[in-house]
Amino acid sequence: MLSYSLFRNDPKLVVIRAGTPLYVEGDPSGLMYVLVSGEARIVVGGREVERLHAGTVVGEMSLVSHEPHSATVEAVTNCEFACVDEKRFNFLATETPGFALKLMRIMAERLRNTDRLLGEQQAH
After folding, report:
1. What domains lie within the chain, and their CATH numbers?
2. pTM for this one?
3. CB neighbour list of residue 7: distance below 8 Å, 6 or more residues apart
């Protein structure tokens, strides 16, 4: 989870109504998003893999790799997301102590959770 203080003055906010996707698996990307308010979920292959709360980052893999989104992010309640483009991402990574490390931890945790889910599927 990232501190909201990094994004509170960001004029690039997107409001997503409950039940509406922020983006869909396979959509092109050029942005990372930080959930500012509300609750959302990450869905892969029709299966919810993570619940998101304020401070959660999504879209980071697509921003870093320049590949389409690997999951769908859908608002569970009305949500507000801060948009982070590549220029701002690079600024945060170089000028904000701990930002890149926190982001790597988030990505590592998601990878472990995905591995665990795949292991559970194979066991059945």
Report:
1. 4-123 (2.60.120.10)
2. 0.82
3. 34, 36, 82, 84
Helix (H) or strand (E) holding 119: helix 99-123
Q: What is the pLDDT of residues 42-65, one digit of tens each?
A: 998 888 889 999 989 999 988 888
The confidence score (pLDDT) of residue 11 equals: 66
Nearest Cα to Cα of residue 72 among 99, 102, 100, 52: 52
Judged on CB neighbours under 10 Å (0-12, 13-18, 19+), 97 is: exposed
What Rg value do the Cα atoms of the chain yield, rounded? 14
CA distance 14 to 95: 24
